[in-house]
Amino acid sequence: MSAIDGLPPLREVIATHELSAKKSLGQNFLLDLNLTAKIARQAGDLSGMDVLEIGPGPGGLTRGLLAEGARRVLAIEKDARCLPALAEIAAVYPGRLEVIEGDALQIDPLAHLTPPIAICANLPYNVGTELLVRWLTPDAWPPFWQTLTLMFQREVAERIVAVPGSKAYGRLAVLAQWRTEARIVLSLPPGAFTPPPKVASAVVHLRALPEPRFPADRKVLERVVAAAFNQRRKMMRAALKGLAPDIENHLHAAGILPTERAEQVSLEQFCALARGLA
């Protein structure tokens, strides 16, 4: 990969700029440029796309995205120590990399992006789930992005693709599968990272559906799903009793037994319940 862009290997970049990973920022750096290019390829054909990347760090995935032909990359990085390394990449790809210093939770990237847009990121562990939920729950659908290709802890990735009846099935599965096609496309051992995290990681690819799988009011569905899974050991009639005085009637109308627990309820049933309560 360094032969493709003429930049030094990532270990050298990290040593030059003294970029030890910070636990407080949820950083674990991927140093294998073959691997970062492989992750970039999981995002599909990027040649006509703007790509949003969160937490590029020393720029391994950034280099992969640019080498794989992304039209433009917008990278949002909170750690100012990484900016000189990213500036070196921008110099090799004139006009194709824009770096914004700041917190991805506070920045609206849309002013800097031109559709079609993909999001591809080795997300910092401490903000990954929150960002994913934001991207999955805008008021208007389809969203500003076409695909999400995101690295998570393996356990979080499994929660996104989980099916009813499994331990991993919960709020994330319902929100992700309601509006996207989600699948795990790559697994990575702890040793792929510096420093190695305690757990394995996985890359999830989510493609936005033109319309949600089943009609439902987003806010009502979110409220129902949150209430159901916040008390997942309780029966549905107990977990949801605060949502409506006649909750059992609503459950029956949606085809849900009041004695079932949240993990037994399908996405279609959750949507039917949300429509009934709306």
UniProtKB/TrEMBL annotation:
GO terms for molecular function: 16S rRNA (adenine(1518)-N(6)/adenine(1519)-N(6))-dimethyltransferase activity; RNA binding. One of its GO terms (cellular component) is cytosol. It catalyses: adenosine(1518)/adenosine(1519) in 16S rRNA + 4 S-adenosyl-L-methionine = N(6)-dimethyladenosine(1518)/N(6)-dimethyladenosine(1519) in 16S rRNA + 4 S-adenosyl-L-homocysteine + 4 H(+). Pfam families: RrnaAD. The keyword Cytoplasm applies. The keyword Glycoprotein does not apply. Its EC number is 2.1.1.182. Specifically dimethylates two adjacent adenosines (A1518 and A1519) in the loop of a conserved hairpin near the 3'-end of 16S rRNA in the 30S particle. May play a critical role in biogenesis of 30S subunits. This is Ribosomal RNA small subunit methyltransferase A.
